[in-house]
C-alpha cells in the first residue's frame, strides 16, 4: 500500500528558520528618526563643460545654498584626461556673479558666500579654474546655470551703524560706531573689526579697552597694524547696543574704512555656529 511522503522534518526546519528570522522585540533596533527638514539645502545644476586643446575636459556644476553665511556658491566638477575614460575629482576656484529678476544681486569667490537677497530664480555666471587630481587637466572658462532658491531670507540678527563726517586728507575724524544685536538667539559675544586701506598712512586709534590694533609678525615682534582695529564685544543684548568711538587720522592720501562684525549663534559645538555681517563703509572726500 503506497504511503504518503513524510514532510515533518522539512516543516520543522522551516519553522526553526522562521523563528530565527524573527527578532525578539527586546532586540530590535530603535526606529530610525526621519531626517531633519527645514534647514539649509544645497541645490545643484549642470553648468557647462570646459575643454582643452588636447582633449581634456572638466564637467562643471554650480550649486547654491542659502544659510547663515548667506548665498553660498560652489562649483563641483569632474575631469577627464586624454586617453582614459576615467573621471577624476577636480579642484575648482574662481569668481561668480548672480542676477535675480534680471538685476545684479550678489557676487563672490568660488567657493564662497555673498549676501542672500531672498528666494527667487538666480542666473549664476562663474569664471572657473578647474584642475584635476591627479594632475593632467588645467582648464579655465565660463559656465552658467539657473537655480531657483526657495529658502526664506533670514531676519537680521546683528547690525552696525556709524555717525561721523566723511574722511579727508590731512585731518582727524571721530567716528562713533553702534553695534546692535536684535535677536534673542545666540549670546552677547561679537568680534567687531575696522580696516582702512593699507599703504595710505591712515591710523585708527581708540581709548576703548575692548579694542586693539592687531598684532603682526613672529614673536617677539610687537608690530601692529595701525590702519586696523579689532574689538572684542561681550555684552551685546537686544535693547543694549555697544558703542565704539574711533579716531581716524589721514595723511596726504585718501582712504575708506570698512567694518565687519562676526558673531556667535546657538549650537556652540558645531563647526559653523555664527555669521558675519558687513557694517557701513566710511568714504573719503
Multimeric status of the protein: single chain
Strand content: over 45%
* Principal-axes shape call: globular
- Rg over CA atoms, rounded to whole Å, is 29 Å
Q: Give the structural class.
A: mainly beta
Main beta-sheet strand count, sense and barrel state: 9 strands, antiparallel
Question: Are there runs of 5+ residues with pLDDT below 50, and where?
Answer: 1-38
Write up this protein.
Helices cover 5% and strands 48% of the residues. It contains one helix and 18 strands. It is mainly beta and 285 residues long. A hairpin with a 2-residue loop joins strand 5 and strand 6. The model is unreliable at 1-38 (pLDDT under 50).
Per-chain topology:
Blueprint (H helix, E strand, L loop, with lengths): L7 H14 L20 E10 L5 E11 L2 E5 L2 E4 L6 E14 L2 E8 L1 E3 L5 E14 L4 E12 L8 E6 L7 E11 L8 E7 L6 E3 L5 E2 L15 E6 L8 E9 L6 E8 L9 E5 L7
Antiparallel strand pairs: 1-2, 2-3, 2-4, 3-7, 4-5, 5-6, 5-8, 8-9, 10-11, 11-16, 12-15, 12-17, 13-16, 14-15, 17-18
